[in-house]
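User: Sequence in, structure out. Go.
Assistant: Echoing your sequence, followed by the structure tokens.
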Amino acid sequence: MVELPRVVITGVGLTAPNGNSLAEYRQGLLAGKSGVQPYEIRYFGKTLAGICNFDPFLYQKKKDVRRGTRAGSVACYCANEAAASAGWDLEYYDRQRIGVYTGTTEHGNVETENEIYEVSKHDYDLSFWSHHHNPRTVANNPAGEVTLNMSLRGPAYSLGGACAAGNLGLIHGVHMLQLGEIDLALAGGISESIHTFGIFASFKAEGALASHADPTQASRPFDKARNGIVVAEGGCLFALERLEDALKRDAKIYAEVIGHRINSDGTDFVLPDGEGQNACIRGALQNAGIEPDEIDIVSTHATSTPMGDVIEARAVREVFGDSKDVYVNNTKSYIGHAMGAAAALELAGNLPSFSDNVVHPTINVSDLDPDCAVENLVVNEPRQVERVDTILNMSFGMLGINSAVIARRFIE
């Protein structure tokens, strides 16, 4: 068997509803800081959302922001932050060998809704339709905007994987590096979901949209009173490179990606299937060559829906049983569901555990649902542990797509 090159994370660039850098985001997670706010959107009205407050003009000109998309701005911010975090001098590298892989849940909804609204003001005269619409709505837009912004010339495209997409972007970047197609990758997930009224209307129609008098407590995975998803925007891109290259330049290594798995339930449009999730987790463990009890943190997908959380908790129990050394947490309780960016943001939030040996909690759990109880679920307060070496990051999506990534503290 051919031994594939080892791939490591050497930089993290992100914007989340509760932080615009890994340090700020991590501080928010340990302090229990929610990024969910009251929100109002055209046609739908008042609701709640996880809203980012990064400065798009830090890396883009006003003309680029006006011509491009919110997803593109998120991607450009995250990509530049990741490259800076990794200490990459792009003048040193062949720009044709830098890849950009952005996982997305959907793309183009926001821009199409905006254009229809604009032409409605002119009796639907399509001569008022923007000539920027096509480049704004193509699926590769977020990755493409990064290449324009950073003058990159390598492969750049989006991977549609519903709410598992952030893991897919990361996994694809790892593969391309292992295949020798590129030398550097910016990979992860991007979401502009809160800017489309359609997503709120659809979740509302499904009975899956969260509500709560206190916005900061609306996203409450595993709690008995949970009542749905809080939609969020955000993004996280990882700077990836082969280990040998990272060592040559004495780079800081956040983690090594040692295993992954993507599979499908093949059962339902929306309702997840525990058997498929179980198989995905076990497949990632097998790919990494480790046993369940070698995982230190299980980062759950749980979205705060009544059925989804129960199904996932059951899958976790089936794989990890009553192990007292495996800790379980959730990040959506802080920021809501960032759709295509969710998996990447959730992994990023746990990476500092390799350094501080602290497991951030799931917040807003005031009355744990017995059907969601799993061993060592960390709730409401951070947990100091002896050591964190391995993280399992799970993310699942509509049409039954499942993904899992295993990251490990770097060991030479």
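User: And one key feature?
Assistant: The domain at 260-408 is CATH 3.40.47.10 (Peroxisomal Thiolase; Chain A, domain 1).
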